[in-house]
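Open question from group meeting: does this chain pack into something compact, or does most of it stay loose? Before anyone orders reagents, we agreed to write out a predicted structure and look at it together. Recording both the input and the output here so the notebook holds the full record.
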Amino acid sequence: MSTDINVLIIDHNPDDARLLQKLLADSEVGRFAVECIENLQDGLLRLETGGVDVLLLDLSMPESQGINTFLTVRNKTNNIPIVVLTGLDEHTVALEAVKLGAQDYLVKRDLNSNWLSRALLYAIERFTANKEIKTLNEELVQARDEALATARFKAEFLANMSHEIRTPMNAVIGMSDLLRRTSLNVEQSKFVEVIKSAGGALLNVVNDILLFSKMEAGSFPLENTEFELLDVVEGVAEILAGPARLKDLSLITFVEPTVPKTVIGDPTRLRQILLNLGSNAVKFTEKGHVIITVRNEPETSDTLRFAIEDSGSGLSSDTMQKLFKPFSQGMEKIATTNGGTGLGLAISKLMVELMGGKIGVNSTEGKGSTFWFKLPIAICEKQPPEQANPTGRMLAVNFTLRELEYLRKLTTHYGMEFGSAADAKEAVREVERSRKNGSIYDFALINVDANNIDRAAMPNDLATLVNQLELFGILLTSFDQAALGEDAVKAGFSAYLTRPLKQTQLLQCLDDLSNGKKLSPISRGTERENKDRSLDPTLRALIVEDNPINQEVANLQLKKLGLTAQICSNGKEAVDLVKQQEFDVILMDCQMPIMDGFEATRQIRALGSQLKTKPIILAMTANAMEGDRENCLAIGMDEYVAKPVTIDGLLHLLSTLLPDRLVEFKTHDIRFQLERSSRSTTLMSEDISKNVAPSAPRESALDTEMLTANFGWESACRLLTMFADGTPAILDKLDKAIASQDVAGAKANSHELKGYCSTISMHEMATLSKQIGDATRTQDWSEARQLFEQLVAAFETARREIESLTMITTPST
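Structure tokens returned:
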């Protein structure tokens, strides 16, 4: 080496120091400039002046012994490497020094020139390398922390902006929807549709950006729960059925029969990924099909492959390279027409990777695309038993080759025999040919589309065919052509099913027919004439409720019953309004700020003859304890109802209290056929209706069926969005009340949240809120805190499902 290495030796024994100095002078591997100091304090002073590359330290000094010697020096300086010198019996102390930061230790009697020289050189190299690594790690940690802080700040900023944008946009969309239902000319209707569509698109952009920012910031927890895989896949198909039907696309789902039925994972995020990819496929496909499939990966036992295939225009290699990147549509020409934030695929990619999977696309320009992703999913040890085990022989009529492939796989997996025919004439020939060969078909599954047939003649013609063939006829038609299926059953068919075809329903239908079970229609979405009841629209109603969501729910319910209501936020406002105006019905919440419902009722009843009309006062409360009804009636209320309040329940109570103000009328009721395709009509056995699982996972936090049935899909989404936006503030107040052991505050906030959740059927959160209130009353703060943590977790689950539903309403690209 051309440069001297400056070595400082601190050793009280001058003979040992001279020996070390001589060994270094004789070194063949380096040049050393050596300085010797016999006193520890003098050595420490020398270290302060700098210019030392490596320190040789004797641990046995007169003023300090053993590890204390090393620590004294290390505390003085930590920017030079230290090699300790020991005697034969000091190995334990020397090793402890190495653990605390010394680069090496040497036994004095074992030294030679090259050994000592190399030990010092290696010590310098290790020290320098470790110092560089430490500096680099510190820089990486700092960079990571800064990036996370930036991402968190961005997420918080976007969350606030989302709230600020979402609130007025809800008003824009809501009012434009109301305006759309008024008397408008053609031009005005067009303007309103543009406003509503643009508002929905803007909300979609906000939702996409907010979700993407959360994922970037790492604030994106995943669920790990048991769920039925087939339910999720077929539920997605139901949601996509409406848009696909509008474009005359064939929408097909097929989960290989060998795929486990019950798995463990995040059903909400899986549904979101499938919806993103599926909605893109529908959006960018003008004719043909969209097929969603799930199968086991052959090379692994715990990985599933999901694929969404379309017959669209396909993608060029340049376009495929741009996919899955944020704000990159990747399909510029099509995107100009179809729009989108360009975040849908990026969000899907992040979700798949967070779940430990991989995503990609295969495509040929002009021949369609297949987006796929693979996910490691744990399989539940205990799988549910087969609900259906059909036997016999089925003939499929008028299906595409791909549909026939999947129907064949499904039926033969259960031991059935399968045949196909292109049309009715070929079906007759196939049945006759089979009979001659000694084989008899038991079922005919006939695919029809009312757009391409004689609607009036079809049911009787096909029924004649089925009777001629002497087999069970099952009609398959679109979800929006339920009346066609009903006519077919009246004409002689055994049953009808709707597209998109559900595997469980087909198997159960075949099983029931083969076992002679009676089939009966379930008309949950068909147009039919009903006798509906409503209230006299001249009734004057007042809603007294402090919670905005509960106000909205009560107002929507009264609108459904034909009433227009005024709204106020506390009992004092209600008393003032009653003094100024006449009301026939008052829906009164019991617990409110400023003045509660009990005191408001007392004051209203005290007005007595001052009021021209004595209003009916209906108590609405989240309490449902024994004696609550009696307390309400005792202070002057006319009836009591516990939240959640249903429209039917409200109508029943008000019609009982106001029988002379009830109106009956006939109406043609079409329920949610296009708003939400999961309300599609099917005809199947009574057993099927009991056994077929709903499209959402059983552990869903949301009772969307109830919300949709009571308020309609758009109103339900609006209520859930209000819930997601408003609940954190209440949780924050409840958290602080529990932390400070504030009995009154905890009781008030838990009660408010209980009513909040009960109103929109958040059953788990309502129960937890009640339990927190109970724990608060007994001042069991430990129990209250544990319940609160469960409540927060339940809310996060609900919020994730709400975010997913929001994306469902307006799928992103």
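Observations to bring back to the group:
The chain has six domains: 5-111, 137-217, 225-379, 393-527, 531-669, 700-809.
The mean pLDDT is 78.
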